[in-house]
Task: inverse folding
């Protein structure tokens, strides 16, 4: 059964600092997604990674995929308060999208 | 705004009742997926519809059923509600062109409470 594990589950960081969120999954897949969810809101698509070695960047966020290691990372550069949210990774297996438990990020001034 | 609308936004039901949740997909999208998100957890895949046919199903019992209409709007029906069905129900639409890896556009969800 496909399992998707994120760590850390909770992350508190200072503004201006860098950090990485990790997403491990248990079976072969080359479709990895990152989403953001603000409290009480729906999910916003951040990145779609479709091949080994894929790297995508948007503002202070950069996502990468290593399909051989079954690992994706979401790197945060010089965090700002507006990045505070819950971040989910998700893996697509034959139209079954499995989400991780989420990383709740708090960026403090 | 994603262009995906869900109704109602909130709903309270009692155990044993039936509920229908509705989703209007983003214009031009041919695929809709439904997810259940319990408080503090990641969304769990319920099922997906592509051109009015079920195209994938997660680990949910048959009392969870769905429909997709010719205009690509969709319904999620849940029969014999249980307390554990209390959750945020999200629908997401996408345009499946056959290549995979389509971006999902989520609605704001329906918060269902079962008492």
Result:
């Amino acid at each position: 059964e496909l399992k998707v594990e994120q760590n850390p589950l909770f992350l508190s960081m200072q503004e201006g600092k860098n950090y990485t969120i990790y997403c491990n999954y248990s079976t072969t897949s080359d479709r990895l997604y990152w989403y953001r969810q603000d409290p009480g809101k729906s999910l916003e698509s951040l990145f779609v990674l479709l091949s080994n070695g894929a790297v995508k960047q948007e503002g202070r966020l950069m996502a990468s995929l290593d399909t051989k290691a079954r690992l994706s990372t979401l790197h945060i550069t010089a965090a700002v308060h507006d990045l505070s949210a819950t971040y989910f990774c998700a893996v697509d297996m034959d139209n079954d999208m499995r989400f991780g438990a989420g990383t709740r990020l708090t960026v403090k001034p | 705004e994603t262009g995906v609308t869900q109704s109602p936004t909130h709903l309270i039901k009692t155990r044993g009742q039936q509920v229908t949740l509705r989703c209007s997909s983003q214009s031009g999208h041919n695929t809709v997926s439904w997810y259940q998100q319990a408080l503090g957890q990641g969304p769990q895949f319920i099922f997906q519809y592509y051109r009015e046919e079920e195209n994938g199903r997660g680990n949910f019992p048959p009392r969870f059923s769905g429909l997709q209409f010719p205009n690509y709007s969709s319904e999620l029906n849940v029969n014999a509600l249980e307390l554990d069905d209390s959750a945020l129900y999200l629908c997401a639409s996408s345009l499946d062109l056959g290549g995979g890896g389509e971006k999902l556009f989520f609605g704001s969800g329906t918060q269902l409470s079962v008492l």
